[in-house]
């Protein structure tokens, strides 16, 4: 049974926003009522708000600081954030800010999430990011995030990629890393995410492969 | 495992600095460069280096002065308003002939402005880094890979010429993520620094690092000597990239993020049969005058694409000696010109045949 709330957390730059947006679209396509919440208080650019048009066209509710993508550089949380925990009739996808600093904001709603007990908290990992290239450093970042938000991860998302340059071989080469992180942390690998153009090549070879159709691109 | 990693521009600067032998970072957080400090905070303690979040930008630049005087590779980073605060320190570093690396990941201004990307500190970096007669070597990366390479290069240039090298990036360059190859960065060993204040060991006279001169004659002489050195840099260290300039009739002048946008527009215009190319300065000081002087004999118009109200355009006009019209295509306040806007400017230049509309 799929949990009502899915949280994507991880090292900054691991791909959380992209995955959250695509996962929400996926839920919506299977007919669910979905809310996406941008809880990022760290990143100044490249926010879920960049995908507002696509999300709203798909009938997905976006909860996002009204100051995201503006010049107001304050770690503000959106006032309607409580809709996530109050409105239990909708699925919620939460894009949490990077690292322990970003995860701190989760403390605002973590008591309600724990009380309801109907969530997955997924750690997005990427072995091509310099500070999470090996197992100990990855576990260190995940541990810091758990400590900051007072919640435990329930699974992993292997989003190992090199941006647009990612090859099928790069993804295949990351599977061992994801398995090792899984073994060391005791967390299952819930999905492996790839950009849409690699999906057909890899879908037979990787279990639980999830395509990221929507990609924000800057020149 | 691939030999590349996926990095933000800001992280690439920080990691490249560490690989260049920098073990002292002093800074104060400001968007959109904070990842540099965050990266240093994580890495420096693990490699025996120093990360110190100073009480202010001014304190940070003066800590840079101290470590530079001791002869070690040292850096600070900030964004536009923070660089203004550092300008006194930049002048003192110049006056004491101290090598340092300073990073400016620019945001919109003036004043507090905003946090979105900008290139409006061009004047400040290339002409007015602080009071007094001095220059900084100004490096303008246009990819995350170049953020890393020019950081390493910046430390080497700073040491060679005993002056500040500044990385002049912008918010987009700092925040965007691209694959980077770090293993082949052209790291140079630090040269001997016989002038550094490292303790005499009772074996040599005291070294003095200072920017105060009691004799005006001596101060004048020092200034003249410094500008002799600057001339050597202009001759030997100017860097630029030419893109599709062979047969170009229209020339784009752009650096950093503006050059990336312009490349897209140039490729589109070329597909339409318009002969357009680009000169991309990599060093903003020294400014690559020679290729623009050549272009002035070849093209009918130069378009300066900038995220400012038109700052580099003045150097383009000087370098082309006003032989061809130089027009401005810009966005400001944190906005970025779109490839469509640049393409429109190219189409207009193609139609007007070099006559200013």
What would you note in describing this structure?
The complex is a heterodimer of chains A (219) and B (357). Helices cover 35% and strands 20% of the residues of chain A. With 219 residues, chain A is α/β, with parallel strands linked by helices. Chain A has a single domain (5-212), classed as P-loop containing nucleotide triphosphate hydrolases (Rossmann fold, 3-Layer(aba) Sandwich), CATH 3.40.50.300. An eight-stranded parallel sheet of chain A has the order 3-2-4-1-5-6-7-8, with helices on both faces. In chain A, strand 7 (189-195), helix 8 (196-202) and strand 8 form a beta-alpha-beta unit. Chain B has two domains: 5-236, Thiamin diphosphate (ThDP)-binding fold, Pyr/PP domains (Rossmann fold, 3-Layer(aba) Sandwich), CATH 3.40.50.970; 241-352, 3-Layer(aba) Sandwich (Rossmann fold). Helix content of chain B is 41%, strand content 18%. In chain B, the strands form three sheets. Chain B has a seven-stranded mixed sheet, sandwiched between helices. In chain B, strands 9-11-10-13-14 form a five-stranded mixed sheet, sandwiched between helices. Chain B has a two-stranded antiparallel sheet with strand order 1-8. In chain B, helix 9 (256-271) crosses helix 12 (339-352) and helix 10 (289-296) packs across helix 11. Chain B is globular and about 75 Å long. The mean pLDDT of chain B is 96. Chain A binds chain B through residues 12-13, 43-46, 70-71, 73, 99, 101, 126-131, 133, 161-163, 165, 170, 173, 218-219, and chain B through 1-2, 4-8, 11, 15, 31-32, 35, 38-39, 42, 108, 113-116, 171-172, 175-179, 182, 257, 260-261, 264, 334, 339.
């Amino acid at each position: 049974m799929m949990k009502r709330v899915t949280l994507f957390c991880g090292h900054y730059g691991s791909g959380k926003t992209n995955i959250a947006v695509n996962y929400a679209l996926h839920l919506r396509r299977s007919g669910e009522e979905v809310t996406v919440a941008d809880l990022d208080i760290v990143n100044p650019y490249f926010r879920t708000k960049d995908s507002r048009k696509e999300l709203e066209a798909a009938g997905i509710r976006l909860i996002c600081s009204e100051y995201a993508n503006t010049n107001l550089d304050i770690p503000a949380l959106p006032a309607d954030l409580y809709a996530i925990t109050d409105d239990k009739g909708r699925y919620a996808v939460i894009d949490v800010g990077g690292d322990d600093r970003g995860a701190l904001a989760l403390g605002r709603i973590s008591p309600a999430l724990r009380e309801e007990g109907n969530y997955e908290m997924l750690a997005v990992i990427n072995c091509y990011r310099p500070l999470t290239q090996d197992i100990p450093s990855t576990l260190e970042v995940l541990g810091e995030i758990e400590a900051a938000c007072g919640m435990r991860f329930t699974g992993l998302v292997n989003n190992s990629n090199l941006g647009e340059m990612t090859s099928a071989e790069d993804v295949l080469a990351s599977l061992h890393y994801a398995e090792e992180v899984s073994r060391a942390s005791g967390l299952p690998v819930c999905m492996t995410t790839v950009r849409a153009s690699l999906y057909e090549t890899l879908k037979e070879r990787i279990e639980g492969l999830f395509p990221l159709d929507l990609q924000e691109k800057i020149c | 495992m691939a030999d590349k990693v996926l990095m933000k521009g800001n992280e690439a600067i920080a990691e490249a600095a560490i690989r260049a032998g920098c073990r002292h970072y002093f800074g104060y957080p400001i968007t959109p460069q904070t990842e540099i400090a965050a990266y240093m905070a994580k890495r420096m303690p693990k490699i025996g280096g120093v990360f110190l979040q100073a009480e202010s930008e001014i304190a940070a630049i003066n800590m840079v002065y101290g470590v530079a005087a001791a002869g070690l590779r040292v850096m600070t980073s900030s964004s536009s308003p923070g660089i203004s605060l550092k300008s006194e320190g930049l002048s003192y570093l110049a006056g004491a002939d101290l090598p340092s690396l300073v990073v400016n990941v620019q945001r919109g201004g003036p004043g507090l402005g905003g946090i979105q990307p900008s290139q409006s500190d061009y004047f400040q970096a290339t002409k007015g880094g602080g009071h007094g007669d001095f220059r900084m070597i100004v490096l303008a990366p246009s990819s995350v890979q170049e953020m890393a390479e020019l950081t390493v290069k910046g430390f080497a240039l700073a040491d060679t010429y005993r002056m500040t090298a500044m990385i002049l990036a912008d918010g987009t360059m700092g925040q965007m993520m691209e694959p980077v190859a770090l293993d082949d960065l052209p790291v140079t060993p630090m040269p001997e620094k016989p002038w550094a204040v490292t303790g005499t060991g009772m074996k040599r006279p005291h070294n003095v690092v200072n920017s105060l001169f009691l004799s005006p004659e001596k101060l004048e002489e020092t200034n003249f000597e410094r500008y002799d050195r600057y001339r050597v840099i202009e001759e030997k260290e100017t860097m630029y990239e030419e893109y599709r300039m062979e047969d170009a009739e229209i020339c784009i002048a752009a650096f950093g993020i503006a050059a990336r946008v312009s490349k897209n527009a140039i490729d589109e215009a070329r597909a339409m049969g318009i002969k357009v190319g680009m000169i991309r300065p990599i060093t903003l000081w020294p400014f690559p005058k020679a290729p623009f002087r050549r272009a002035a004999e070849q093209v009918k118009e130069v378009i300066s694409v900038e995220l400012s109200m038109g700052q580099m355009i003045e150097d383009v006009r000087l370098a082309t000696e006003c032989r061809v019209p130089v027009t401005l295509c810009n966005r400001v306040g944190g906005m970025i010109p779109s490839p469509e806007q640049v393409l429109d400017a190219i189409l207009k230049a193609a139609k007007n045949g070099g006559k200013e509309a």
